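The material for today's practical consists of a large collection of protein records. There is nothing in a record beyond a sequence line and a structure line. As an example, a complete record with its sequence and its structure tokens follows:
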Amino acid sequence: MATSGSVDFLPNRNEIIKGALRLCSALGSQESLSSEDARDVGEALNMIAKSWMADGLQVWLQDEATIFLSVGTQSYSLGAGGDHASASSIKTEVKTAVSSGTTLDVDSTTGMTAADNIGLELDDGTMHWTTIASVTDSDTVELTDAVPSAAAVDNHVYTYTTLLTRPLRITEAWHVDESNEDTPLLEMSRKDYVSLSTKSTQGRTTQFFYDRQLTNGIFHVWPTADNLKHRIKIYFHREVHDFDSSTDDPDFPKHYLRALKFALASDIGDEYGVPVNRLERWERKAYMLKEEAMMFDVEDGSIQLGIDDRG
């Protein structure tokens, strides 16, 4: 018997909602989902998805990003309208020295598009951030705002399209130098960071403290950067994406689908007159299904054992 060869089964937001409502006997298999149910049950689905972020280290929510440094800056705001940081960025270098105008020659424009953010390292130790007005060819871009002062050949140029959303948790961070050499950073506690007597010390960054906050997270570094060719790479946990549209796919692996369905049914059942014993059964089943799914979401690792022969 031949299989389908397909692995693209993935119910969207409204299909998950309809499945939960069918469990609650609130929707027939041939009935259409009302806009009111889509709105109200969709809200419950989003609340469940957000609450599950507190369960631990979901591997599919881990991502990598770059924080672009400024000389002497002690902390960076990560999130909407925050400082320059992105989960997807491009690094290149100045090909032809420039001191004014909007035309910038770089080693390569591969991956760059109009409206991308672009940062140019200036000779005076500052970054000129603007946007790309247009990509002229393989090594030339037009800037929205003119270059304010000199930038020598081989000065760094960074571009990115989307600003980093607020990390929920930063698990690891590295200092990256001009040769792309990575050095792990030591994470400080809040107490350790507050206790630093001189937070403005400049040098090669060796430590960080991340203050998550409610809107934008604050990434504190020590020492502060003394070189714009250096940057910080982070591994972080991002938020689960919202269910905004009726056709939005879940931001969960497929093995979480049944857990979502039963968790949603148990959450909304009271509003649809479902008996308590059925709600409790669904709640237990949702918990069991989610635990099974989470057990699968563990990164492979190695354990090294040694013998202590110090006596």
Notes: Residues 276-296 form the longest helix (21 residues).
